[in-house]
Design goal:
The complex is a heterodimer. Chain A is an all-alpha fold. In chain A, 73% of the residues lie in helices and 0% in strands. Chain A has two domains: 56 residues; 42 residues. In chain A, helix 4 packs across helix 5 and helix 4 runs parallel beside helix 6. The longest helix of chain A is centred in the N-terminal third of the chain and has 21 residues. Helix content of chain B is 73%, strand content 0%. Classes of the chains: A mainly alpha, B mainly alpha. At the A-B interface, helix 2, helix 4 and helix 6 of A face helix 8, helix 9, helix 10, helix 29 and helix 38 of B. Chain B: InterPro entries: NatA_aux_su (IPR021183), TPR-like_helical_dom_sf (IPR011990), TPR_rpt (IPR019734).
Chain lengths: 107, 851
């Protein structure tokens, strides 16, 4: 009997810790607080955070305008096991020059 | 939800959702069946039932039901949402987010779906999508605090620092703080999170002012002070930084970061010139040591800082420092002093000090007396007999570390003779024997250590590892099983469940040596799968950490997970697997394990063998393709049974034969693993070595070139780089026959960006020789250069000169020799390989493993 007691305790402990672990992923209802006050506070936040990256957009437009040869894209894809999108991008960044593109990729 | 149902069933449907959310799967299933009895074609209920079945691991049924549900109600956001959840549980993130987006097209303001989508987006680090989903959620539900914090996080990870701070400020200003313990803690954490954003943005002034304001609400005092110290140092407000650093040292004197911060503050405040800095740092350590005589770090740091000019001081300090360990019998002394071995003169000083101890103990039974000095609180007198033992043990470890294995063995044997009951001595002996190449006796010794304390898991682990090193797989498995839980699972499956990666790496290596590729691959793949699990495990934290507002830990977690595959276990298993795939590609007959074929091949000439191998390869590829087809017919279920069927992953296909058969092209599989290594272990020269091996076999010359360039950038003077440069020149650039089919653009890049940039105008052998003379002290580089010269050698004369270099093994570890032997056998003549092996056997006569 004496031997069994700690064994049982251990089991109980394991069971408890398993249960606690399980709880971590439990569904917990979200707490709602002062919805009205927050609704008011939000206005300033949302406007300013939708800022546009004009420069980024400009660069993307420039890249999109570069003419590239689809055979060249295939070469990059084949030689470097790259997907089409990143191969195209690499080629565009090098103004459509295949050798230049390959050169940047072997560094 | 469930809107097409009558009101009674509608409420039942809501019940069903609730049961699912609270993980009451049995009740959920019953409720679903109840609705389906009346409305067997109700799409949303069918889909929900599928989801419930998925949770109880009935994958096949789950997919069928969810698809059927969707078919019956394509316009329902619930069905699409469920479809997404199903994919997500199988880690098909792309498919899952596609399904969520479809659901949102039907119901764009569904908070539940938006929330799930956001989880997926942060999991896949799709930050742009994450911020827009989070913005929508905040607009819809500004009353939930999670939405505020998550939106701040979205701005933070996109480096919109000012926005992130503003969001936290607005939120904190609006909320009415609770005063229970949990709320107080959360408030402090959130402010510390904000502070970390300010610091990350480089706005140290604002960060400090903010810290001042939140002084009273922060619970985590150490983090608070650490932030103060960092920001003050960044602003060079040295006096204040010094004060804070001292306060931190008061809290914990054994934290080296605090010492460094303290030194930096004082040194820049006093404007100490570069050459006087070590001196001043030592003084600062001494001051601290005086008021805190029991602390070790202030005594240990000066040993690193002293230069050769103060040799006497070094010896004196070392003497008093090590006595503390010796008199208490602390076995960690050798590890503690490891960093000193970088300086040759310190190594000699250590040796002299300890042999002096040994002699003194022999003559007078005590350590030599010390002059009365502030550094040595220890009184002289008779030393206990145990001190002799610890001195001998240290000397054994010392000689082992500097490569004098005979000396090491002499001391360890004497130590064991002196006191045969100390376990550490047997462990040290096992390690020395391992370095001698005597793996059999090393394993026996580790087993002896294990038997001295059967309840010690560390000893068990070491013993298992040593057994695996000499391919004693059965003993190892039996031993290690002594420490697995008495659960339902046993053996290797239990180790897999515990994600015991050192074991899987070691046993994988053992199976590779034993030419059991299936089993090897199975174990190496197990390691890869653990990392998939680690990454998946993040999912739980995306909700949990936001709810608990433990944002600092959460951000750390995200950063750790980003880099988790750079862990040594992942890279080790990946490298071993790549090597295995290369071997299987070169020697495909191994795959069937048929010894006859191998023997038959061995008798053929090189050309014939190649022909036969390529034939075999083709027939195997065909077979594999046929099997693949058959598998597809059996449906997708195969891979998805997973944990469900009762059998664990290690128990299904236990010998890895299915896994091995499933690989159609070993080079494609190797390339897949290499992409991970190139991303996560780019600073490891071995990554590029393997990339070259794979690229050259796939005729991807540009990738081979890239591997050489990268290796040369990481370690220009290493054995690996030199050999790669030579091989690229010989095998690609000068090999017109081989490259004849390559595109002109490819050849142009190879000729303009190739080895000429590295070698310059020198001849190839001139380049190798220069590196060899330059780095005479490193035996690894010297031997690597010897190997490179052998590759270049055009006549017998040059060959024998290269062999001379290779046969000088002074300073080479057994491990290096073993690796060299295997590299040589891939290109050198048989008699050359043999004579190299002879040289190794001469240096390591005890070696018990085939080279």
């Amino acid at each position: 009997m004496e031997d069994e007691a700690p064994e049982k305790d251990k089991d109980r402990e394991t069971a408890k810790s398993n249960k606690d672990l399980g709880k971590v992923t439990d569904f917990v209802a979200e707490r709602e607080v002062d919805a009205e006050k927050f609704r008011h506070a939000i206005t300033g936040i949302l406007d300013s955070s939708s800022k546009d990256n004009a420069e980024k957009v400009k660069r993307e437009k420039e890249l999109a305008a570069v003419k590239i040869n689809s055979e060249d894209v295939e070469v990059i894809m084949k030689e470097f096991d790259m997907d089409r999108a990143s191969s195209e991008r690499c080629l565009r960044e090098q103004s459509g020059n295949l050798v230049d593109a390959l050169r940047t990729l072997v560094e | 939800m469930g809107s097409s149902l009558p009101s009674k069933e509608q409420s039942q449907f809501r019940q069903l959702v609730k049961f699912y959310e609270t993980k009451q799967h049995k009740k959920a299933q019953k409720t679903a069946d109840g609705i389906l009895k009346k409305f067997p074609n109700h799409g949303e209920t069918l889909a929900m039932k599928g989801l419930v079945l998925n949770s109880v691991n009935k994958k096949e049924e789950a997919y069928e039901l969810v698809k059927l549900g969707l078919k019956n109600d394509l316009k329902s956001h619930v069905c699409w949402h469920v479809y997404g959840l199903l994919y997500r549980s199988d880690r098909l993130y792309v498919d899952a987010s596609r399904a969520y987006l479809q659901a949102l097209r039907i119901d764009p303001e569904n908070v539940q779906i938006l929330r799930d989508l956001a989880l997926l987006q942060i999991q896949t680090r799709h930050f742009e999508g994450f911020i827009s989903t989070r913005r929508t959620l905040l607009t819809l539900k500004p009353g939930q605090k999670n939405n505020w914090i998550a939106f701040a996080l979205a701005n933070h990870v996109l480096k919109n620092y000012a926005e992130a701070v503003k969001i936290i400020d607005t939120y904190s200003a609006t909320i009415v703080p609770g005063d229970d313990r949990e709320s107080v803690y959360e408030r402090g954490e959130l402010q510390l999170y904000k502070n970390s954003i300010l610091e990350e943005n480089g706005d140290h002034d604002a960060a400090l002012k903010h810290l001042e304001r939140i002084k009273d609400i922060v619970v985590d005092r150490s983090a608070f002070l650490e932030a103060q110290a960092r920001n003050l140092l960044a602003l060079e407000r040295n006096k204040e930084a010094e004060e804070i650093a001292l306060e931190l040292l008061e809290r914990n004197m054994e934290n080296s970061v605090y010492h460094e911060q303290y030194h930096q503050a004082v040194l820049s405040d006093e404007n100490v010139a570069e050459e006087h800095q070590p001196r001043r740092k030592i003084e600062l350590c001494d001051e601290l040591s005086k008021s805190n005589p029991k602390m070790l770090l202030p005594k240990r740091m000066p040993l690193d800082l002293l230069d050769q000019g103060s040799k006497e001081d070094f010896v004196k300090r070392l003497d008093s420092y090590v006595r503390w360990f010796l008199e208490r019998g602390v076995p960690a002394l050798s590890v503690d002093l490891k960093s000193l071995y970088r300086a040759e003169w310190k190594v000699l000083a250590i040796e002299k000090l300890f042999t002096g101890f040994e002699n003194s103990l022999k003559e007078s039974g005590a350590l030599p007396a010390v002059d009365n000095d502030t550094h040595s609180p220890v009184k002289s007198g008779n030393s206990s007999p145990a001190v002799v033992f610890w001195v001998m043990l240290f000397l054994a470890q010392h000689y082992d570390r500097i490569g004098d294995l005979d000396g090491a063995l002499k001391y360890i044997n004497r130590a064991i003779e002196h006191t045969p009951t100390v376990i550490e001595a047997f462990q040290v002996k096992a390690k020395i024997l391992k370095h001698c190449g005597n793996l059999t006796e090393a394993a026996e010794c580790a087993d002896a250590a294990r038997k001295m304390d059967l309840a010690d898991r560390y000893l068990n682990t070491k013993c298992t590892k040593y057994n695996l090193r000499c391919n004693k797989v059965e003993e190892a498995e039996a031993n290690v099983a002594l420490f697995t839980r008495d659960g339902e699972t046993r053996g290797v499956q239990a180790l897999y469940d515990m994600q015991c990666m050192w074991f899987e790496c070691e046993i994988g290596d053992a199976y590779i040596r034993m030419k059991k590729p299936g089993l090897a691959l199975k174990n190496l793949k197990a390691v890869e799968r653990h990392f998939d699990d680690f990454i998946e495990d993040q999912f739980d934290f995306h909700t949990y950490c936001l709810r608990k507002e433990t944002m600092r830990s959460y951000v750390n977690l995200l950063l750790v997970e980003d880099e988790i595959r750079s862990s040594k276990y992942f890279t080790r298993a990946a490298k071993a697997a790549i090597r295995l795939h290369i071997d299987l590609h070169d020697n495909p007959q191994q795959k069937d394990g048929s010894a006859e074929q191998a023997a038959a091949l061995a008798n053929l000439s090189v050309a014939e063998r190649k022909k036969a191998q390529s034939k075999l390869r083709k027939s195997q590829a065909k077979k594999a393709a046929a099997e693949e087809l058959k598998k597809k017919d059996n449906g997708k279920a195969d891979g998805k049974k997973g944990k469900g069927g009762g059998d664990g992953w290690m128990e299904t296909d236990p010998d890895g034969s299915e896994l091995l058969k499933g690989i159609k092209d070993h080079m494609v599989e190797a390339a897949r693993l290499l992409r991970e290594l190139e991303k996560y272990a780019p600073r490891d020269v071995e990554t590029h070595e393997l990339a070259f091996e794979v690229a050259i076999r796939r005729n991807k010359y540009l990738q081979a070139l890239r591997a050489v360039n990268r290796a040369a950038a990481v370690q220009p003077r290493s054995s690996a780089s030199v050999n790669l440069v030579v091989r690229l020149r010989l095998d690609v650039e000068d090999n017109e026959e081989k490259t004849s089919s390559a595109l002109p653009e490819v050849l142009e890049v190879v000729s303009t960006c190739g080895t000429h940039k590295i070698v310059g105008d020198r001849s190839l052998s001139g380049y190798v020789n220069e590196i060899m003379t330059d780095s005479a002290q490193s035996s690894d580089t010297r031997l690597g250069c010897g190997m490179a010269l052998l590759r270049i050698a055009g006549n017998e004369n040059e060959r024998s000169r290269a062999m001379e270099v290779l046969q000088d093994l002074s300073g080479a570890s057994f491990k290096t020799c073993r690796q060299l032997a295997s590299s040589l056998s891939s290109f050198a003549k048989t008699e050359e390989v043999e004579s190299f092996k002879e040289a190794v056997k001469e240096k390591y006569p005890q070696c018990t493993v085939p080279l």
